[in-house]
C-alpha cells in the first residue's frame, strides 16, 4: 500500500536555528497535508498542498510540494520554543465509494534548546 | 478546541475487562476515524467510517470492535486486550467525499492494559 517516508525522525536545535523535515513517496501523490502535534497533545492540521511545485508560507513556516508531486518539505525559520512538537506529513489515499484516508509519515520530533 | 471530544481521557483495564471508548464530533462531518498512536508506530490507522459505513479495516485484531451509530458518534469496543495494546487512541473526523479535507483530531484516550 501507499507509504510515506519522513526524515529525520528526531531533530534537536538551538532556539533561533532553522529546521527542515522531509517527506518522500515512491508514487505520485494527489496532495500532501502537514500536521503538528505538541507534546501531550493531538495532531492539528497546518496546511494542504495540491499543485506541483506549490510553495505556501505561514509566518516562519514554509511548505513545499515537489515538481513531481512525490516529495514535500516543511521549513521553519528561526525556531522558537513554541515550535516544539512532532510534525507529520500525510498523503491522501482514495478508498471505496468516494471515501478517503490519510497515510501518515513517521513524524519528525523537534526539540529546542532555549 | 471542542470540535471532537473523546471519553474517557484515561483508561486502565485488565486483560479480561470489556470497555468502550467514545468519540463525538460537533463539526457536521461525514467521516470518522480511529487511530492508534504508540512509540513504535506514531499514527496507525485502524478504522474508517464514511457516511456511517465502515470502508476500511486496517487488519485490526477482532478484540477491537468499532461502532458508528450515526455520523456524529464513533465507539471502539475493547475486550480481552493485551499489554501491547496500551497506547493513545485518537479519533478524528473530516468532511469528505471525492475531495481531500483536513482531519480534526480529538484529544485521545490514553489506554493502559495491565
Task: Outline the fold blueprint.
The complex is a heterodimer of chains A (114) and B (114).
Chain A: E1 5-7, E2 10-14, E3 19-24, E4 32-37, E5 44-49, E6 55-58, E7 61-65, E8 71-76, E9 85-94, E10 100-104, E11 108-113
Parallel strand pairs in A: 2-11
Antiparallel strand pairs in A: 1-3, 3-8, 4-5, 4-9, 6-7, 7-8, 9-10, 9-11
Chain B: E1 4-7, E2 10-13, E3 18-25, E4 31-37, E5 44-50, E6 53-57, E7 64-70, E8 73-79, E9 87-94, E10 104-105, E11 109-113
Parallel strand pairs in B: 2-11
Antiparallel strand pairs in B: 1-3, 3-8, 4-5, 4-9, 5-6, 7-8, 9-10, 9-11
Number of helices of chain A: 0
Number of helices of chain B: 0
Multimeric state of these chains? Answer: heterodimer
Kindly state the mean pLDDT of chain B as a whole number?
92
Q: H/E element string of chain B?
A: EEEEEEEEEEE
Spans of chain B of 5+ residues with little confidence (pLDDT < 50)?
Answer: none
Structural class of chain B: mainly beta
Q: What is the overall pLDDT average of chain A?
A: 95
Strand proportion of chain A, as a percent range, falls in over 45%
Q: What class would the helix/strand composition of chain A place it in?
A: mainly beta
Description of the structure:
The complex is a heterodimer of chains A (114) and B (114). Chain A is mainly β. The model of chain A has no long low-confidence stretch (mean pLDDT 95). Chain A is 0% helix and 54% strand. Chain A is built from no helices and 11 strands. In chain B, strands 2, 4, 5, 6, 9, 10 and 11 form a 7-stranded mixed beta sheet that branches. Chain B has a 4-stranded antiparallel beta sheet with strand order 1-3-8-7, with no helix packed on it. In chain B, a hairpin with a 2-residue loop joins strand 5 and strand 6. Chain B has 114 residues and is mainly beta. Chain B has strands at residues 4-7, 10-13, 18-25, 31-37, 44-50, 53-57, 64-70, 73-79, 87-94, 104-105, 109-113. In chain B, 36% of the residues are buried. Classes of the chains: A mainly beta (114), B mainly beta (114). The A-B interface holds A 30-31, 33, 41-45, 48, 50, 86, 88, 92, 95-104, 106-107 and B 31, 33, 42-43, 45, 48, 50-51, 53, 55-56, 90, 92, 96-98, 100, 102-108.
